[in-house]
Structures are given as structure tokens and as C-alpha cells.
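Q: Start with the shorter request: fold the first protein.
A: Done. Sequence, then structure:
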Amino acid sequence: MAAELEKWPAQEILPRLLANDVPAAPILSRFELLQDGQVQANHILEEYQSVVFGQVRQPRPAAQFDRTPASVRELAPLLGADNAAILSELGYNGAEIARLERERVVHHKPAHALRE
């Protein structure tokens, strides 16, 4: 089937698939996605404020429920943000954690350095 689909430009095959009730959708670039009517109508992308990156756009939770609404409470942590807490739970002390960071065994980069 894939070999047959590859013979057709998307703008020709997509209407034919949809006309025959075949679930189909185009593959969009990240810029096309921002302008997609369905993405905009369903408010799929929301904007959040990051202390490191400023305004950040990301998808809202996919499932939407009236009685138990989902929301983004905080943005995903930066790489290595939870290292010290996790290593402490595993029994490492502050000096050992500092050594692991210094020796680059675990990732450690201050948040302000990410903007550079």
C-alpha cells in the first residue's frame, strides 16, 4: 500500500481518501501545524511562560473532560534539573553529587547558561 501511495502527490490523494471515508491527514511541518485550522479551532497549542526561554508554545493535554479538567501545571524540567534530588534519594551526599557534576558524570548546566 505504501508503494502505491508514494506514486501520488498528497494534494491529489488526500481528497480521494477522505471522499471514501478513509481516515487520513497530511503530514505537516511545524510551521504548517501552527496555521492548521483544526489546531487553531481546538486550541491545541497553549502558551506558557518559562523563566529560561520566555514564551513557550506546547500542546495542551489531549483529553478534555468537563468534571476533571486537565491542565499544564508546570513546564517540563530542564535536563539535569532533578539530578541532585534523585541522587540524594539514592544516598549520595552533597560532596559526591558535586564531584559527579564536576567530572561530568551527570549533566549540570546552570539555567542562565542555556540562553547563551
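Q: Next, the second protein, separately.
A: Sequence, then structure:
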Amino acid sequence: MIEFVCDGKAATCTPGTLVHVPRGTVHGFAYGVGGGQMLEITGQGALAAQMFTAVDREVSAGEADIPRALQVLARNGVTVPDPR
């Protein structure tokens, strides 16, 4: 199960759920107990593939280096809102 928030609206996504996120929409997700899997498909000209490649290359798996991850995201056009 994955909890997904898109433009302020929350949804619990079970296997087989399709979520459409229009370009520029604030969104986020959290895996439930036991984790999960997600497939992302991006449109032509989207920067998501570039961003995910940079995160994979520059942020070590299992490492909780949030400041480094935020730097990589910012460099790839992603704004992460402050949760406070």
C-alpha cells in the first residue's frame, strides 16, 4: 500500500492503482508497512528521468543524507516544501 498525496488530496493506493500527476503539481508519497513498488512513466520533455538518474548516481542507497538529496533534487528543478 502507498499513501499518495496529489495537490493536497490524499489517497491510499493498492496494487494496480493508476495515479496521474499533471506537470507542476505538488505531490508526494509514503510506502506503508512492508514497503511497496511503483512504476513511473513520464512524458516527453519531463525532467523526472534526469532527476531520478541523478539521485541514483549521487545519493547512496540506504544513506539518510537528506541535505545531499535535497541538493540533487533542487539542481534538477524539484522544490521540496518545508513540512513545518
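Q: Describe the second briefly.
A: The first helix runs from residue 48 to 58. The mean pLDDT is 87.
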